[in-house]
């Protein structure tokens, strides 16, 4: 009895195991690699903005004006936020007065030095005092530049994180700005396709949300090949951006004159 059980156990250990690829092959005939999941020359692509950013506060202060809302279109250079800067402006006035006093003292010491009525040390210290007060004034004016925020590029406000009259910390996000004038198409394709798909390869995409076609060309390959899925991210640029296209839309992509290689 024991001998029979040992024989069955040995036969079980010696039987070949079924690999993941074999299991998939049973479900999907002809499977030999992850690339086989892309049997056609079409795949999915998603639109994304080429330029986008999160604008943050450059100072710790109260927001006096912040009129933009989500969905607003803004132009490059447009003022979108104003902070309370009364304290910083008062500091600038004080720094200007200190600089004027330091310059006057230095000029007097220069005249006295010619009459040998002041030491060279006193003259050097007064010169340094002028340089120090100038630096303090520059520091205050650098802060004053943060009292108003201007848009770095034209785009759409997609997120607004704070409201007017709210006190914000330095570096705190205020809003998200997205430029929809130039959209890219992000695709994930089998790495074997890189044999034929290069920078400049033409493609077409049928947008699901609008049911309209668009054309473009491959611009670049992102990063490295994923060794597990044997796929790679590719970015394409649309030849002409349509007004009704928005980031996040997706559709079917087909490459011009492309034949999927055999894995």
List keywords for this structure.
six-stranded antiparallel barrel, four-stranded antiparallel beta sheet, alpha+beta, 12 strands, 263 residues
Provide a short characterization of the protein structure.
The protein has four helices and twelve strands; from the N terminus they run ααββββααββββββββ. With 263 residues, the chain is an alpha+beta fold. Among the domains are: 24-50 and 181-255, Beta Barrel (Elongation Factor Tu (Ef-tu), domain 3); 86-145, Helix Hairpins.
Structure notes:
- By secondary structure, the chain is an alpha+beta fold.
- It contains four helices and twelve strands.
- It has helices spanning 2-14, 20-27, 86-114, 120-144, and strands at residues 42-56, 61-65, 73-74, 79-83, 148-150, 155-160, 167-168, 173-190, 202-207, 212-226, 231-238, 250-255.
- Helix 3 packs antiparallel against helix 4 (120-144).
- Among the domains are: 24-50 and 181-255, Elongation Factor Tu (Ef-tu), domain 3 (Beta Barrel); 86-145, Helix hairpin bin (Helix Hairpins, Orthogonal Bundle).
- Helix content is 29%, strand content 35%.
- The chain is elongated, with a radius of gyration of 33 Å.
Topology:
Layout: H1 2-14, H2 20-27, E1 42-56, E2 61-65, E3 73-74, E4 79-83, H3 86-114, H4 120-144, E5 148-150, E6 155-160, E7 167-168, E8 173-190, E9 202-207, E10 212-226, E11 231-238, E12 250-255
Antiparallel strand pairs: 1-8, 1-12, 2-4, 2-7, 3-6, 4-5, 6-8, 8-11, 9-10, 9-12, 10-11
